From TrEMBL:
Reaction(s) the record says it catalyses: Couples ATP hydrolysis with the unwinding of duplex DNA by translocating in the 3'-5' direction; ATP + H2O = ADP + phosphate + H(+)
Protein role: Initiates the restart of stalled replication forks, which reloads the replicative helicase on sites other than the origin of replication. Recognizes and binds to abandoned replication forks and remodels them to uncover a helicase loading site. Promotes assembly of the primosome at these replication forks.
GO CC terms in record: primosome complex
Organism: Brevibacillus invocatus
SMART domains the UniProt entry points to: DEXDc, HELICc
Protein name: Replication restart protein PriA
GO molecular function: 3'-5' DNA helicase activity; ATP binding; ATP hydrolysis activity; DNA binding; zinc ion binding
Alphabetically ordered keywords of this record: ATP-binding, DNA replication, DNA-binding, Helicase, Hydrolase, Isomerase, Metal-binding, Nucleotide-binding, Primosome, Zinc
Residues the record lists as binding Zn(2+) 1: 516, 519, 556, 559
One Pfam match: PriA_C
InterPro entries according to UniProt: DEAD/DEAH_box_helicase_dom, Helicase_ATP-bd, Helicase_C-like, P-loop_NTPase, PriA, PriA_3primeBD, PriA_3primeBD_sf, PriA_C
Gene assigned in the entry: priA
């Protein structure tokens, strides 16, 4: 028996299946989709079986093939569909096949988790008699497979057969599962300067303390669990205890987040009587679900129009057909509220995949899917790879969200993968948004997706009143505060009425750079060409790309002036200003700093929900999916910061953000106001957002895209090169660029090589080539050839090259 196997060597030369012989003892276990260990050159590698045949192809002598050494799982983790999908992704996104496969599997299956043997209940007496001791042990307890291999080498060879006939099972046991609800966290009590000082005075033997301090210099605001300290940084409790005794760190008992649904029973919730509009929208969706044939819909509905109820109903009909449903949400809107709505409706049929789960918990959810214990998966981007066998519906909520695009290899877009999967399965694809991506809406207007509109809020609740404030006029009126007079007034009003508000800052720390007022010197990262961001809590400046952190200098390194300080507005600064202007105001700040610990995101939200805060203050993070009945004011500070990004989607993103934030206010009985503060009130994205007018925005923005040659009129491929030496990276970029230039269609535009907008990251210089094309049917094939030519040149050079098809991040 021959197995065709792709191996975990992600370069294009090895991007094809290799043949291995299957030894007889493994043949009961191996299947297409199995994960295996095979010898490859001098190494042992993980691989995946993509085909099995009785004989070798092309008359190769079977005896010359190497043997498969191990089959890793009792049942293959890859279904036939996922395997096919991974092959398609490899072609579509120009990544190694094996990389696409790995993106589909939970991290546990890539790590070094221990595997254990468990005897099943019905032991066969005959086998027990044959292999006495091992079975006696197994009857008492589970055994680690590695130990069995050592102690019982003969029986070890029989294990695949036993698994095959159901006598035993094997499974991974993941240590990271959190069993305790209380955990000890360590946090640093020293300022960065003090840390530097202590570091200088430590004896050479105080290795663990040094590591702790270096860690806190990098992450001054964070806490680390004692477990993490031990497992990841090799620091034991006694070292931490003596640091605590010296007053350098504090060890605190912290309530940790665990599966918040584990000990809850949900009361089944009845669905509402649908509005007329919801019925109209549901009719064609349900018809397609009944027909079990491919269909795709774009549900364009304002926030609060009842889209989620439509999704839930569609899922119910899918389950009634005996099929399964995948529901994708952007990571950030995978809130307990959202999950609750699913649990209330579908109970234990739901698996939830979100990033706050530990690896072990994720693996558990994934196994529920592959064992067919659930019928619905709710999750972020990668949930599109749920190993269901009979997908009947894929819902993508907030389909315009850029988090559906993966920014590392494989650089896939979940919407595109979903489309493939829906077609492959004869399933329904239902995308929803209040502000569809231009690409999606354009396809819908051309009939590729059925367009369904829900222009009104449920129960005719009015859209919030939007007020645009021109901040230039505020300045003329001598108001130098970051709050306009109108916003100030409205905040005071809500405080008096005890209503809640959200205040939204475009991008965390976007312009909180440190600059010298005397000479104009700015603090930049020494590894990356971007400015450092000021963090008030510990007076440090930090690079958001590589984590490089320094203490805020007291004097300008350039001219020694004392007038060096931070500029611009970060969430911390807004918080400070609110406290100053409204004494006693209770602010809950949500940004990357306050939500880095697992579960903190949910904790802060539930505090706000319980009324423990007047203001929810934050970045992008608070713009989406939240539904708080008592919020009647949404304030947007510096609405236009996102307009000035070097990104052709800047206007679209601004429109989306303003619409989303506006949607947070007045969703329930109380009516709401939205205040948009801007320096460019005349910009069309701001004008149309004010009027809740998506179609008008779409028209204007499409004109721009046509004029500038960007999607949806053109498609893009971004190729980025990086290396420590400028001449080397330029040469590499030219090798690939020249190859392409000679071969692309005359209508295709090839830009570059030029330095990337961020020209250096982590001491590597970056160059890029951009391909803009309309009629280039074989673009992936062309790029594959170009990659091969480049890799030939690159053998000695080690230039890193990435290809991003339909890129979102153009930096
Ligand atoms: P969207 O997903 O479009 O923002 P939701 O589905 O969350 O809208 O609905 C907004 C609010 O209206 C929710 O509180 C929801 O429970 C309620 N709602 C939705 N449909 C109905 C209906 N047919 N009758 C009564 N309330 C509804
Ligand atoms: Zn200076
Ligand atoms: Zn950096």
């Amino acid at each position: 028996m021959i197995a065709h196997i792709i191996v975990d060597v992600p370069v294009s030369r090895t991007n094809r299946p290799f043949d291995y012989r299957v030894p007889a003892w493994l043949s009961p276990l191996i299947q297409v989709g199995s994960r295996v260990v095979v010898p490859f050159g001098p190494r042992k590698l993980q691989g995946y079986v993509v085909g099995i045949s009785e004989n070798t192809e092309h008359g190769v002598d079977e005896d010359r093939l190497k043997d498969v050494e191990q089959v890793m799982d009792d049942t293959p983790p890859l279904t036939a569909e996922l395997l096919k999908m991974s092959e398609w992704m490899s072609g579509q996104y120009l990544c190694p096949w094996v990389t696409a496969v790995q993106a589909m599997l939970p991290a546990v299956l890539k790590g070094k988790a221990q595997k254990w043997l468990t005897a099943s209940d019905q032991l066969d007496e005959r086998i027990c008699a044959n292999s006495g001791l091992l079975w006696e042990l197994l009857r008492k307890r589970q055994l680690p497979l590695a130990e069995v291999e050592k102690q019982f080498p003969d029986e070890y060879m029989l294990i695949p057969g036993w698994i095959h006939s159901g006598l035993i099972t094997t499974e991974y046991q993941v240590k990271d599962r959190i069993t305790k609800k209380q955990q000890s966290f360590v946090k640093c009590l020293l300022s960065p300067e003090q840390m530097m000082e202590v570091l200088g005075s430590l004896s050479a033997r105080a290795d663990q303390m040094r590591r702790v301090l270096e860690l806190f210099l990098q992450h001054p605001a964070d806490s680390f669990s004692i477990q993490t300290m031990r497992d990841e940084f090799g620091v034991n409790r006694s070292a931490l205890k003596s640091m605590e005794a010296k007053g350098w760190v504090a060890i605190e008992q912290v309530e940790v987040y665990r599966d918040p649904y584990a000990n809850r029973r949900f009361v089944e919730r009845k669905k509402p009587a649908f509005t007329l509009r919801q019925q109209e929208v549901l009719a064609p969706i349900i018809r397609s679900i009944q027909e079990s044939s491919y269909a795709s819909f774009l549900l364009h509905g304002v926030t609060g129009s009842g889209k989620t109820e439509v999704y839930l109903e569609a899922i119910e009909h899918t389950l009634a057909k005996g099929r399964e449903a995948i529901f994708l949400v952007p990571e950030i809107s995978l809130t307990p509220q959202m999950v609750e709505r699913f649990k209330e409706r579908f109970g234990a049929d739901v698996a939830v995949l979100h990033s706050a789960l530990s690896q072990g918990e994720r693996y558990d959810e994934w196994r529920k899917i592959i064992r067919k214990q659930v019928k619905v998966v709710v999750g972020a981007r990668s949930a599109i790879f749920a190993p269901f066998q009979n997908v009947g519906l894929i819902v993508i909520d907030e389909e315009h969200e850029s988090s559906y695009k993966q920014e590392e290899t494989p650089r896939y877009h979940a919407r595109e993968v979903a489309l493939w999967r829906a077609k492959e399965n004869g399933a329904v694809l239902l995308m929803g948004s209040a502000t569809p991506a231009l690409e999606t809406y354009a396809l819908a207007t051309r009939g590729r997706y059925t367009l369904l509109e829900m222009p009104d809020r449920v129960g005719h609740r009015p859209m919030p009143q939007v007020h645009v404030v021109d901040m230039r006029e505020e300045l003329h009126a001598e108001n130098r505060s970051m709050f306009s007079r109108l916003l100030h007034e409205m905040i005071a009003d809500r405080l008096k009425k005890q209503e809640q508000m959200v205040i939204f800052l475009n991008r965390r720390g976007f312009s909180t750079f440190v600059m010298c007022r005397s000479c104009g010197y700015t603090l930049n990262c020494i590894h990356c060409d971007i400015s450092l961001t000021y963090h008030k809590s510990n007076h440090t400046a930090r690079c958001h790309y590589c984590g490089y952190t320094i203490a805020q200098p007291a004097h300008c390194p350039e001219c020694q002036s004392e007038h060096i300080r931070f500029f611009g507005t970060g969430t911390q600064k807004v918080e400070a200003e609110l406290a100053k202007l409204f004494p006693g105001i209770r602010v809950i700040r949500m940004d990357v700093d306050t939500t880095s610990r697992k579960g903190s995101h949910e904790e802060l939200l539930s505090k706000f929900r319980q009324g423990q805060g007047d203001v929810l203050l934050g970045t992008q993070m608070i713009a989406k999916g939240l539904d708080f009945p008592r919020v009647t004011l949404a304030g947007i500070i510096a609405a236009d910061t996102s307009l000035h990004l070097p990104d052709f989607r800047a206007a679209e993103k601004t429109f989306q953000l303003l619409t989303q934030v506006g949607g947070r206010a007045g969703r329930h009985e109380l009516e709401g106001d939205v205040v948009i503060q801007t320096y460019t009130p005349e910009h069309y994205s701001i004008i149309h957002a004010t009027r809740h007018d998506y179609p008008a925005f779409y028209q204007d923005e499409m004109l721009q895209r046509r004029r500038t040659g960007y999607p949806p009129y053109y498609r893009l491929v971004l190729i980025t090169f990086s290396h420590e030496d400028v001449p080397v990276v330029i040469r590499g970029a030219h090798v690939l660029g020249d190859f392409l230039r000679q071969r692309v269609a005359s209508t295709t535009i090839l830009l570059g090589p030029v330095a990337s907008p961020i020209a250096r990251v982590k001491d590597r210089f970056r160059f890029q080539i951009m391909l803009k094309y309309r009629d280039e049917p074989n673009v992936t094939e062309l790029l594959t050839q170009a990659t091969a030519a480049f890799e030939e040149w690159n053998k000695q050079q080690k230039v890193l090259m990435t290809i991003d098809v339909d890129p979102y991040v153009l930096l």
